[in-house]
Amino acid sequence: MLRPGNDVHDETEAEKLSAIFCGIDWAEGHHDIALVDQDGSQLAKLRISDDSAGFHALLELLARHGDSAECQIPVAIETPRGLLVASLRATGRTVYAINPLAAARYRDRGSVSRAKSDAADARVLANILRTDRHAHRPLPADSEAGQAIAVLARAHQDAVWDRQQMVNRLRSHLREYYPAALTAFHGPGKLGLDSAHARAVLAAAPTPASAARLTRSQLRGLLTRAGRLRRGIETEVERLREIFRAEHLHQLPLVEEAMGRQASALIQQVNAACSSGTDLAAATEEAFLAHPDADIITSFPGLSVLSGARLLAEIGDDRSRFADARAVKAYAGAAPVTRASGRSHVVVARTVKNQRLASVGYMWAFATLRTDAPRAHYDRRRAGGERHTAALRNLFNKLLGCLYHCLQNRTTYDPDRAFPVSLPLAA
After folding, report:
1. Which one of 131, 165, 179, 351 has the fewest beta carbons within 10 angstroms of its own beta carbon?
2. Is residue 366, in this structure, part of any structural domain at all?
3. Residues 277 and 154 placed together within one structural domain of the fold
4. H-helix or E-strand containing 309?
5. At what angle do helices 253-289 and 144-177 cross, to 10 degrees?
6. Same-domain check for residues 18 and 134
7. What is the pLDDT of residues 266-308, one digit of tens each?
């Protein structure tokens, strides 16, 4: 990723004097390696397997060309993930994750015939470090705990998205033959199709006919085993019996039975998605609360333990990763982009950003509207003519700047400093 603004990552003196650069074109079963010197001449190339033997062959190749603990050869690769990247980072060397789109543009610079090979791509990556290393960001040196939180927080977010996708599939299916189930559990003020009570009832009665046959004692038992209810068990039992026994349109009996079997399968998938989401949420919270940055992050209004973990997962705990608050704001998409050419001057929202960080930032800003100072800031932006989304993005921009300051200085959130009261000018 290109460095935003003046974001210059600290480099050791040995890295600055490195005369050899390594490019790796990775694949699922093998990886192509290329080494070039400062003049761009290729010194070596090698194809290694995606296993321990291949990794040791890579280290031996680097060692033969002067790689040492004092002067390690930097590596460029088109992914920030995987066992190969993790093993390279464990050696302490600097690894650059080059955006594949950027690498494709560099490839066009060296050849107009659009010829392509894995070995040539590895050479292109090595040359990117040789000519433009200053313009690319090395992978951050996040702590082991920070990397673990990133894995868990992203897995939990994926589980939430998967659960919602499964619920949407279940809703669409029920709409085809079981409108009573949607009336009972889907919509404002209802329990929701992903609630334990809805899943228990639908698992026991996957068809309208079986739901109409449920007795009060059966419904009471299903709801009781699923957990407590705000409105009370008896009230819910009567509400469900009335809905299930009301007149509704029906599919043919055999078709309805078959669709009930399909609904049972979907409910099992929803159960699995809900269970995995719950387990991952507990693991994420436990890991995040043990991190030294947790107290600072959760001191901000609108950030819960889970949303704080998602925030930390994306910004990491390497405090040298971003040169200033402007850099982290650009990374999150909170800062706008200016496009100026001739007489044209347009300021637009940033679309190239960390989507996960932008997502949690939007929810963070929305949650802070219950707090006086952030709400006043939002209202001022709205009064100035901004739409809801733009005002929230500006609020996220301000909060992110405050968070950057607090993390850099190891201080907790102070509303008086974050949103100082503007004094009226003297007459």
Report:
1. 351
2. yes
3. yes
4. helix 305-315
5. 160
6. yes
7. 999 999 999 999 999 999 999 999 999 999 999 999 999 999 9
